Amino acid sequence: MAGRALVLGGGGVTGVAWELGVLAGLADAGVDLTCADLVIGTSAGSVVAAQLTAGIELEKLYAAQLADAGDEIAARISGTTMLKWALAFIGRRDAQRGRARLGRMALAARTLPEAQRRAVIEARLPVHEWPRRRLLITAVDAESGEFTIFDRDAGVGLVDAVGASCAVPGVWPPVTIGGRRYIDGGVRSAANVDLANGCERVVVLAPTTAGAGPIPSVATQVAQLSAKVTVVSPDKRAKQAIGRNLLDPARRAPAARAGREQAATVASAIAEVWSAGPA
Q1: What is the 3-state secondary structure (H, E, C) of 160-176?
Q2: Closest C-alpha among 263, 133, 131 to residue 203
Q3: Residue spans of alpha helices (H) in 182-251
Q4: CA-based radius of gyration for the chain
Q5: How far apart are CA 275 and CA 279, in angstroms?
Q6: CA–CA separation, 121 vs 115, rounded Å?
Q7: In the Cβ-directed half-sphere of 179, how many Cα atoms lie within 13 Å?
């Protein structure tokens, strides 16, 4: 499709906060990314994507990141879990098989109950219906490793789609949809930028950008697009504000403020892409 795409990548609760901070700061500078023709959300980015396309005022979404964390549950990705992630892909050229192996680990992991985690996702989303605008939310089938894209025509509730996209393997429970179990869309790629293929202008907000083994980096996927593209990831100050634990709700406010401040330094570059002619 022609037009403009906003790609929102994964990065935990601090990633949600940082992305909303950047979006709010860009709006301060007169750059409105909320009018994108296509919005793509992966993991943390799926939360922001669902919030933006629901028509909620950006300032309200930003203010919520500065408030008490409320129903959010603190978590941490342990060293053991990270090792299991690495082992799932080591020596594997077939990315889907690696994702399936990681999915099996997620299915066997001891986590909080699925219903309790779903309540957290519900609280994050002011609106629980799919928007009319084009929204894609990514996930991975935990058993087969198949990459899955949810949209309003998939027959899946928005809360479940976002919950699936945010189901970090080994940390949160896989989400049950139609008898299948799903895990984090970031298992396939940090931002799944390639879904913007066909758009003329693309802006990527990516709290994390690295790839590993068969998992492509954001830069690798961007290089394959025939479009005008700009990528924004946390600068030094934002990384300090986010801290080492991306899943710590206590870091939401600092991350949001850092994102808003960072926006001033990238606004002109983003505006150049967002308002440019065809690639």
Answers
A1: HHHHHHCCCCCCCCCEE
A2: 263
A3: 218-223, 236-242
A4: 17
A5: 11
A6: 10
A7: 0
How does 22-32 read in b/e, with b if 16+ C-beta sit within 10 Å? bbbbbbeeebe
CB neighbours (10 Å) of residue 18?
35
Angle at which helix 58-66 crosses helix 44-53, to 10 degrees, equals: 140
User: Tell me: the pLDDT tens digits for 70-113?
Assistant: 778 888 887 888 787 777 777 667 889 889 999 999 999 999 99
CA 2 – CA 92 distance, rounded (Å)? 35
Q: Which of 168, 145, 185, 178 is closest to 50 using CA atoms?
A: 185
Token pair recorded at residue 191:
């931002």
User: Which position has the token pair 């801290």?
Assistant: 243
Nearest to 121 by CA among 72, 87, 168: 72
The model's pTM: 0.94
Helix (H) or strand (E) holding 182: strand 180-184
> Buried (b) or exposed (e) across 126-149, using 16+ Cβ within 10 A?
eeeebbebbbbbbbbbbeebbbbe
Q: Any alpha helices (H) in the chain, and if so which ranges?
A: 12-28, 44-53, 58-66, 79-89, 95-108, 114-124, 158-165, 218-223, 236-242, 252-274
Residue type for position 258: A
CA–CA distance, 274 with 259 (Å, rounded to integer): 19
**Distance between CA 126 and CA 33 in Å, rounded?**
19
Distance, in Å, from the CA atom of 145 to the CA atom of 206, rounded to the nearest integer, reads 23
Nearest to 169 by CA among 276, 273, 247, 60: 247
**Token code pair at residue 32:** 């409105």
At CA 129, angle to CA 128 and CA 135, rounded to 5? 110
Judge whether residue 40 has pLDDT over 70: yes
